[in-house]
C-alpha cells in the first residue's frame, strides 16, 4: 500500500499496517471531536511515525497514486475541522499571488 | 463519519477522478496534461518565492521590533531617573507586551522555517515527477493501444496531481503562517506607534486599553524594582512606593 504524508512524500508500507493506521486515525478523529489540539498533534505524529518507521520512501520520479493520505503533523484544530467538513482544505491548483 | 486520513484520501480521489474523465484522445490528453503540469510547476515556484520574500520582510521587521524593546527599556530607565515612576511603569508594560508578541513571532518563524524546507523538497519531487511524466508519455504514445494508454495516463496523472495538490497545500499553509506573523508584527507597530513617553500620559486611548488587558503587572513590578535598585541602590521590591532613600 502507498501512503502519502502530506508535506513529506509517499511511502510504500506493508498492508498489515492498515489496521494500526485506522486505529490511530480514529484517535485523531476523536481528538478533533473533543477539540483537543494537543491530542490531535500527538495522534498525527503517531500516524506519521508509524508510516516512516515501517515504510520505504518512494522514488521522486515514481508516478504511482497513493492509497491513503495523512495530514501534516502540525495541522491546527481549525484546519482539521475544515478538512472533516470538506470546506476546500485541499486547493485545486497551487496558489501564487 | 470517517477519520481524517480516510476523509483526506476520499477528497484526493474525488479530485483526481474528475481529471481522468476528461481523457478522451489519449495523445492529446498526454500533451495537454504535460503543459498543464509545467504551468502549475511555475505557479508552485512563484508561491515558494512569495513565501521566501514574506519571510525576509518579517525578519527585517523583527530586528526593528527588537530595537523598540531596547528603546522602551531605555525610556523606562530615563523616566525613573526623573522620578516619574508612572511613566516608567507604562514603558515597561509596553515593553512586556511587545516582547510577548515578539516571542510569538519567533515561534511561528521556526515553524515557517520547517515548512519552507519541506516546500523546497516538495518542489524538487514535483519537478522529478513532471520530468518522468514527459518521458513516460512518449512511451505510452508509442507502445500502447488507446484503451491501455487510458489506464496508464490515468495513473500517472493522478500521481502527479497528488504531488501538485500536496505542494500547493504546503505553499498555502506557509503563506497563512506568514500572514499570521504579519498580523502580530502589525499589532506591535500599533503598540509602539506613539512611541514617545509623552504620549503615555494621555488616558484612555486605544493603546492604554490594550495594555490594560495584558496582565503583566507582576513582571513589570519586578522589573521596576530591579531597575530602581540598579539606579539608586534601593531594594525591597515589594515596597516600591516611598522608598526614595537618596
Secondary-structure blueprint of this entry?
The complex is a heterodimer of chains A (97) and B (246).
Chain A: E1 2-5, E2 9-12, H1 18-34, H2 37-54, E3 56-57, E4 68-70, H3 77-84
Parallel strand pairs in A: 1-4
Antiparallel strand pairs in A: 1-2, 2-3
Helix pairs in contact in A: 1-2
Chain B: H1 4-21, H2 26-81, H3 85-143, H4 146-192, H5 206-213, H6 217-232
Q: Uncertain spans of chain A, ≥5 residues at pLDDT below 50?
A: 93-97
Question: What is the structural class of chain B?
Answer: mainly alpha
Report, as a whole number of angstroms, the end-to-end distance of chain B. Answer: 73 Å
Mean pLDDT of chain A: 86
Shape, principal axes of CA atoms of chain A: globular
Task: State which percent range the strand residues of chain A make up.
Answer: 5-15%
Number of helical regions of chain A? 3
**Strand residues, percent of chain B:** under 5%
| Biggest interface found | A-B, 43 and 49 residues
Oligomer: heterodimer
Number of beta strands of chain B: 0
Give a description of the structure.
The complex is a heterodimer of chains A (97) and B (246). By secondary structure, chain A is of the alpha+beta class. In chain A, 44% of the residues lie in helices and 13% in strands. Chain A is built from 3 helices and 4 strands; from the N terminus they run ββααββα. In chain A, strands 3-2-1-4 form a 4-stranded mixed β-sheet, covered by helices on one side. In chain A, α1 runs antiparallel to α2 (37-54). The radius of gyration of chain A is 14 Å and the shape is globular. Residues 93-97 of chain A have low confidence and may be disordered. Chain B has 246 residues and is mainly α. Helices cover 83% and strands 0% of the residues of chain B. Chain B has 6 helices and no strands. Chain B is rod-shaped and about 90 Å long. Mean pLDDT of chain B is 78; it is low at 195-215 and 239-246. Chains A and B meet through α1, β4 and α3 of A and α1, α2, α3 and α4 of B.
Amino acid at each position: 500500500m502507498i501512503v502519502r504524508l502530506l508535506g513529506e512524500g509517499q511511502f510504500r508500507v506493508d498492508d498489515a499496517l492498515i489496521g494500526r493506521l485506522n486505529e490511530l486515525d480514529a484517535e485523531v478523529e476523536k481528538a478533533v471531536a473533543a477539540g483537543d489540539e494537543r491530542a490531535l498533534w500527538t495522534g498525527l505524529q503517531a500516524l506519521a511515525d508509524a508510516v516512516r518507521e515501517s515504510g520505504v520512501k518512494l522514488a521522486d520520479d515514481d508516478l504511482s497514486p497513493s492509497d491513503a493520505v495523512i495530514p501534516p503533523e502540525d495541522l491546527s484544530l481549525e484546519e482539521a475541522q475544515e478538512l472533516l467538513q470538506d470546506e476546500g482544505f485541499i486547493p485545486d491548483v497551487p496558489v501564487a499571488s | 463519519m470517517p477519520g481524517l486520513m480516510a476523509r483526506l484520501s476520499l477528497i484526493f480521489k474525488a479530485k483526481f477522478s474528475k481529471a481522468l474523465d476528461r481523457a478522451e484522445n489519449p495523445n492529446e490528453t498526454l500533451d495537454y496534461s504535460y503543459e498543464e503540469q509545467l504551468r502549475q510547476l511555475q505557479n508552485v515556484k512563484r508561491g515558494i518565492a512569495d513565501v521566501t520574500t514574506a519571510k525576509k520582510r518579517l525578519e527585517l521587521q523583527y530586528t526593528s521590533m527588537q530595537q523598540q524593546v531596547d528603546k522602551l527599556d531605555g525610556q523606562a530607565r530615563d523616566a525613573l531617573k526623573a522620578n516619574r515612576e508612572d511613566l516608567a511603569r507604562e514603558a515597561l508594560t509596553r515593553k512586556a507586551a511587545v516582547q510577548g508578541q515578539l516571542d510569538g513571532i519567533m515561534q511561528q518563524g521556526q515553524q515557517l522555517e520547517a515548512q519552507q524546507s519541506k516546500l523546497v523538497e516538495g518542489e524538487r519531487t514535483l519537478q522529478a515527477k513532471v520530468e518522468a511524466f514527459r518521458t513516460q508519455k512518449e512511451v505510452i504514445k508509442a507502445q500502447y493501444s488507446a484503451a491501455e494508454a487510458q489506464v496508464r495516463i490515468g495513473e500517472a496523472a493522478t500521481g502527479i496531481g497528488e504531488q501538485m495538490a500536496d505542494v500547493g497545500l504546503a505553499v498555502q499553509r506557509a503563506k497563512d503562517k506568514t500572514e499570521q506573523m504579519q498580523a502580530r508584527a502589525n499589532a506591535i507597530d500599533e503598540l509602539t506607534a506613539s512611541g514617545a513617553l509623552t504620549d503615555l500620559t494621555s488616558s484612555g486611548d486605544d493603546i492604554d486599553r490594550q495594555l490594560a488587558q495584558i496582565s503583566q503587572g507582576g513582571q513589570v513590578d519586578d522589573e521596576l524594582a530591579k531597575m530602581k535598585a540598579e539606579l539608586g541602590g534601593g531594594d525591597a521590591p515589594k515596597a516600591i512606593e516611598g522608598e526614595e532613600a537618596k
